Input
Amino acid sequence: MTQSPQLSVVVPVFNEQDNVAPLIQEIVTALRGVTDFEIVYVDDHSRDGTLAALEALKAGVPELRVLHHVTQSGQSTAVRNGVKAARGAWIATLDGDGQNDPADIPKLLAKRAESASDVRLFAGWRVNRQDSGSKRWASKWANAIRRRMLRDDTPDTGCGIKLFERAAFLELPYFDHMHRYLPALMQRAGWKTLSVPVNHRQRSTGVSKYNNLNRALVGISDLRGVAWLIRRGKLTQIVER
Output
């Protein structure tokens, strides 16, 4: 690829060997002919055949790039490293489990085209979430608490499909699990965000890497930290003279 693409699709993965090929094909189908793009997969030190599957696919998918963590570092670090390595000015993210639908990426691009320039994050909103009842209940409870504490006016921050400006993302404070708080962090930086209804699918293969308990325990600490960041943040308008 001789010039920078317009869009980089960043996909963090851990032990998703059976989901790699189908999801990459869906990304290619959704974006070829729509925009210039690259696909940046970040393998978070998978223990199965994920890395081998990705490397085998590179020969047939010229848009594909593969990064590999030599130690497991978590989803937020994988997303950030993918964004840092990306060549596109705008980033689309997808979870590697196949539950996000790549066909929604053109929808997010179209929403960006009709929105004001100060909207720098378009967040997917899973209006018909295809998860277990317990997971949906836990997510609803967590989202209600988060909205009350952070006032980010976002119904679903846990959705993996998002579209955002690369430069704006890289200016955000980095911490583990930050990917769950991108709307609030973008708003803290002075940008506007927009939630866009997207498709959500059942996981067809593999197992979830999270459960309700570990999400809740981590989320309490994270919420307090992000709320502190928002309280301590100051925005100052700068005028060049």
The beta strands are 7-13, 37-43, 64-68, 90-93, 119-126, 162-165, 192-198. The radius of gyration is 17 Å. The mean pLDDT is 87. Residues 71 and 104 are 32 Å apart (CA to CA).
